[in-house]
Amino acid sequence: MNPVIETQRLTMRFRGCDALTDVNLRVEPGTVFALLGENGAGKTTMIRILAGYQKPTSGSATVCGVDPGSDPLGVRRQIGYVSDAPALYDWMTVAEIGWFAASFYDVPFLDPYLESVRRYGLPEDRKIKHLSKGQRAKVALSLSLAHAPQLLILDEPTSGLDPMVRREFLESMIDLAATGRTVFLSSHQISEVERVADTIAIVHQGRLRLCKPLAELKDSVTEIVVALDDPLVGLPALPSPAELLTEESFGRQRRMVVQDLPASALPLLREATGVLDVQQRQLTLEEIFIAATKGSLGPIADHAVTREEVL
Ligand SMILES: Nc1ncnc2c1ncn2[C@@H]1O[C@H](COP(=O)(O)OP(=O)(O)OP(=O)(O)O)[C@@H](O)[C@H]1O
Q1: Do you know which CDD domains this protein is assigned to (predicted)?
Q2: For atom 1 of ligand 1, which residue has the closest CA?
Q3: Which of 37, 125, 189, 290 has the highest local Cβ count within 10 Å?
Q4: What's the ipTM?
Q5: Handedness of CA 243, 246, 249, 255 (dihedral sign)
Q6: Is the shortest distance between the CB of 56 and ligand 1 below 6 Å?
Q7: Can you say how many angstroms the Cα of residue 308 is from the centroid of all Cα atoms in its chain?
C-alpha cells in the first residue's frame, strides 16, 4: 500500500539553524503516527512543510500523493490541519467561521462542523475572540475534521484542552484510524501519545533518532547495566546491528541504552575482563525518549544491580 506521507532526506535550514536534516519518514494509511521531540527539535517545521506552508531547503516530501512544496493548495484540500497556534478570524462567531470555511469546500462541511461544535459544547453565537484557549482549540479541530479528510496533521493538538477533552479527543483519533484515515500528530505528552499512537518517531536537533511501531520500539530499545570491578574497565564493542543511544558511568556501574541488541551481546559482555555482572531491562517510552534526546536517564534505579549485591 502506498504511504500517506513519505519524506526523503528532508532538510530545512534557517539562517544559523539546521531545523531538519536528512529526515526519511514513511507513514502508513490507517495509523496514528506521533512525532515526539523536545522544544526546538523540528516538529513544527516538519509539519509546516508537510502542510505546504514551508518549502524545504532540500529533499522531498509526498503527502497524499502530492508534493506540498509545488502544490500546497492541492495538499491542503486533502488534509485536515491544525497548527500549534491556529489563526482564526477573531471577529466571527463560532457558527460564522464554519459558514466561511464551508465556502472553500465542495463536500459537506457545515453540518459536520456544527455537529462537532455542539458535541464540544461550544457556544455557536459567541465571537472567536471571546473564547477560551481550549474552546478555540476545539473550534480549530472541528474545522479541520469537518470535510472528513483522509489525513489529519495536528501540531500539539491537545495543548489547552482539559484532561477530559484530551482523553476524548485522543480516543477519537483511534476511531478515525479505525476507519482507514491517518493521523499525524506532534506532541510533548508522551504518556498520552503512548495510549493512542501506532508508530512513534523521535526527532532530536532536527534529526530522526528513532522511528518504529510502538510495540517494536519498546522491544528493540533496552537498558544494560554492567557492574565492573574497576570504573576504568574498557568494554568490548557491541556486536552489529546494536546501536548505542547513550552510555553513562556511575562509579563502578556502566549504563548503556541500546537499540537492536543481538542475543550474542550479553554473553560477550558477561565474559569480558573486569565485568562482575550484567543486567538488562526494557524501558518505558518516556525513558526511551529521554535516552534518545537528552542522553542521560539520571542515576541508576534501585532495581539495577549494585556492586555489593554482586559481591
Ligand atoms: N522561521 C524561522 N527562522 C529561523 N529559525 C527558525 C524558524 N522557524 C523555526 N526555526 C528554528 O528551527 C528549530 C526548530 O523549530 P520548530 O518550531 O520546528 O521546533 P519544535 O520541535 O516544533 O519546538 P516546540 O516543541 O518548542 O514547538 C528551532 O531552533 C527554531 O528556532
Answers
A1: ABC_DR_subfamily_A
A2: 14
A3: 37
A4: 0.97
A5: negative
A6: no
A7: 40
